Structure formats: C-alpha cells, structure tokens
Amino acid sequence: MLADGIESRQIETATVIVELARPMVGEEAKLTADELRWIAGRLIESLTDVLNIAESRGQRIPDYEEPER
To answer: Quick one: pLDDT at residue 60?
Structure first.
C-alpha cells in the first residue's frame, strides 16, 4: 500500500534524525543558536510525521471492548 510505504520512510527518516541529533545536544556539543534551531526544526518535523502516523493508524484500529464475563 502506498500509504504504508510513505509511513515507513517517514519513520526511517525520524530514526536517522534522532541519531544525528543526539550528539548535537550532548554535553560536549558546541553548537550555535542557528544550528540548534535547525536540528530542533528537523526533530519537530519528524515528530509531527510520526504523530500523524499514530493518529491515522489509531483511527483504523477499532476501539477495544472489554469482553463480558
């Protein structure tokens, strides 16, 4: 399905961005304000994509109903 492929790429991209961001915000990192804004923007974009995926998938999953005893 096309949507599944797009979602998969968005999640892969988010994974790469998180891996790149970790050392950029570590104790030894000496980034400029512009560099920090850039990585923050990429993290926000990726988080937005992943949240949209979760919301979309949540709408396709029926609500859980507790079985009657």
So the answer is: 67
